[in-house]
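Troubleshooting: if your tokenizer reports a length mismatch, compare your output against this known-good record of 67 residues.
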Amino acid sequence: MVRKNSILSSSELKGLLEGEQDVLKELVRAVVQQTLEAEMDAALGASKGERTEGRLGYRSGYYGRTL
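Known-good structure output:
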């Protein structure tokens, strides 16, 4: 399993918890995005934008999705 740094910094998380935004929605979004990025990195054998000899494929882009 690939470990990555959190997408949200501690100050951003604190701001979400103190603000009037839908905290759960934002936290779930961040966790899902981080999980998908880690799975893609593992499947391709390289991080986003990384150029290596062992790279197994390429990313094809992004588009918005809703849950």
